[in-house]
Design a protein that fits this description.
The chain has about 220 residues and is an alpha+beta fold. The protein is built from 3 helices and 12 strands, in the order αββββββββαββββα. About 20% of the residues have low confidence.
């Protein structure tokens, strides 16, 4: 019974993570692709902090110059700063008699995307690898690109287990980026940044800035 419960939990998480990855990628989710379906999108309540001029912000991001926006996931109290005003989509997936829920905060950049996901999922510490695989499968299900993880490493963030992964697509318009999955007692948090391979240094700087800004209550 325990093994079946754990297995079903991982399967539910993988499906939910896959669908949120698709949403964060700015791609419409086919209605029959996954069990999780996005609800009506809206713009979340955020506060704006302006960037500097001349292509350089006081946060140390080289280019593009951005306005960093503090975004709070109200149900969890988790906060993050994103390079722009986020579009928010709620997601849900059936899990037996209950429903697994989450929120996706996405920002389109000049040549890619930034996504921040909070999933209400207890016991996620065992599912970080499944979360990464679910993200890749979900992205590739509806994208013209083929996204792969070129490397991954487990780590600990403020006492929470985490998984960092480098990302890359194949093809002429190659994109690169990174993702981090963090598990606390009741949530899985995902941060992903993708951009043009030609601007890899800027993509890395933005991703590091996002990771440094994540705060748990």
């Amino acid at each position: 019974m325990i093994s079946m419960t754990r297995r079903s939990q991982k399967q539910r998480f993988l499906m939910l993570a896959a669908s949120t990855a698709v949403i964060a990628g700015g791609v419409l989710l086919p209605s029959n692709a996954f069990a999780a379906a996005p609800e009506t999108p809206h713009v979340g309540g955020v506060t704006t902090r302006g960037a500097g001029h001349g292509g350089h912000s006081h946060h140390g991001i080289a280019k593009p110059a951005v306005k960093w926006v503090k975004t709070t996931d109200s149900p969890s109290g988790i906060t993050v700063k994103l390079p722009g005003k986020a579009t928010v989509q709620k997601v849900s997936a059936p899990a037996g008699a209950t429903t697994v829920t989450g929120r996706v905060y996405s920002v389109k950049t000049d040549d890619g995307l930034v996504g921040f996901v909070v999933l209400d999922l207890p016991g996620g510490q065992e599912n970080l690898n499944d979360g990464l695989q679910g993200f890749l499968e979900g992205y590739n299900e509806v994208s013209r690109d083929t996204l792969t993880s070129t490397s991954s490493q487990k780590t600990t963030i403020d006492g929470h287990p985490a998984l960092d992964a480098r990302l890359s697509t194949k093809g002429g318009d190659r994109k690169v980026g990174a993702a981090r999955f963090i598990a606390d007692d009741t949530h899985i948090v995902q941060a992903v940044t993708l951009g043009s391979a030609a601007n890899e240094k800027d993509v890395d700087l933005i991703h590091r800035q996002i990771l440094a800004s994540i705060r748990f209550p």
